[in-house]
Structures are given as C-alpha cells and as structure tokens.
Design brief:
Layout (H helix, E strand, L loop, with lengths): L1 E6 L5 H12 L2 E3 L9 H6 L1 H26 L3 E4 L2 H14 L5 H15 L7 E6 L2 H11 L9 H17 L4 E6 L9 H16 L3
Parallel strand pairs: 1-3, 1-4, 2-3, 4-5
Helix pairs in contact: 3-4, 3-5, 4-5, 4-7
Length: 204
C-alpha cells in the first residue's frame, strides 16, 4: 500500500511522515531536501533555477514511486509527484518565474512519466493557513527558506485547495493542521491515526 502526505511548505509533512512511519511500522520515503543541489540557488534566484529544481524533484519522486511499487511493502511518502506537476511548476510559470518553453517541456515529461505510475492508495492533505506556514518555517530555521515570499506561499495554498477539491485519483483525507499539535499532543496524533485507520479499513 502507498500512502502519501501532501501539503504546502511548512505544513508538517515530514514530521507527520516520521510519526506515522513509527506508529504503523511503515517504510518512509522523504523529500530529497538535504542533498538537493538546486534548493539554495532556487531561493536566491527563482527565475534562473526553477526549471532545474522542478526537473530534479520530478526525477527524484518518479524513482521513489517506482521503488515503492516494486517493494511490495506499505510505504508512506513525504510529498507526491503530482504536487510538483499540478502546483509548484504551474505556479512558477504563472508568476513569471518559469519560461513557457521550460514549463511545456516539463509538462510533457511529467505526462510521459505519470503514464507509467499509479497514484497513492491514500493521499493525506495537510491544510494550513499562510500565517501557520510562516510560523512553522521560522521555527525550523532553514537559511534558504528565510527569503520565501508570502505571495508565493499564498499562491501555492490556493492551488493546493483547488487541486484537492478536484482530486479523484484515489482516496483523500484532508486534515486542517492550524489548531493541531501532533508533535506534542498525543490526542491530536491519535485523532489523525484514527482517521487514517478509518480510510484504510473503510470503516467510515
């Protein structure tokens, strides 16, 4: 089974992936942040590095999905290949940060790749307001994220909401995280686990 966690920058995807992996004994696949050769450059000059960054993520996540399906195990994934294609890349294009020829090249490559893979069995979307995202981003203190623009986060949030409303590729569970503290409050984590069990076992 393939479970994936989707959400904007700072929504808590990686943290929840770790907690759920530990609770359910699922293998975890994380977003390739630490070894990403483009991330720092991208936040310094989005227009110059947007295409390179998106191609890196597309390649990385395609490999992950292939590995997940080959493994035959239950795997939880931190962010999906679909978020890059339906949210991040079109957002960069619309903001004038990715030229049309690069966006078209990227889109055709994604279409080809997506024809070889299956969507997650369950998609968990962590919905968050922009102020909450900013708070979380500041708390984790990554240098390269200090220059993220508010309009960039808001635009991504709008796209996430549109995408999840229309999502029909599989089961989707939407969790509002603004008033949750699943790191320090066991009840909040327990509530999420209960909802996931309900989706997986078809109880509700």
């Amino acid at each position: 089974m393939h479970i994936a966690i989707a959400g904007n920058i700072g929504a808590g995807k990686t943290t929840l992936t770790k907690l759920l992996s530990k609770h359910f004994k699922w293998k975890a696949h994380y977003e390739d942040v630490e070894t990403n050769p483009y991330l720092n450059s991208f936040y310094e000059d989005m227009q110059r590095w947007s295409f390179n960054l998106q191609i890196f993520f597309l390649n990385s996540r395609f490999r992950q999905v292939v590995e997940i399906r080959k493994s035959g195990k239950t795997v939880i994934q931190d962010r999906t290949i679909y978020e890059d294609a339906y949210i991040f890349a079109p957002n960069l294009h619309e903001m004038g940060l990715m030229p049309s020829r690069d966006f078209e090249n990227y889109s055709t490559l994604f279409e080809l790749m997506s024809s070889f893979i299956q969507p997650p069995d369950l998609l968990i979307y962590l919905r968050s307001s922009v102020p909450n995202l900013v708070k979380q981003i500041q708390m984790r203190g990554r240098d390269y994220e200090s220059s993220i623009r508010l309009d960039y986060l808001k635009s991504l949030n709008d796209r996430y909401d549109d995408w999840t409303k229309k999502y029909t590729a599989g089961k989707i569970l939407i969790i509002d995280v603004d008033n949750l503290d699943f790191i320090n409050n066991p009840e909040d984590l327990g509530m999420i686990i209960e909802k996931i069990n309900g989706e997986i076992h078809g109880l509700f």
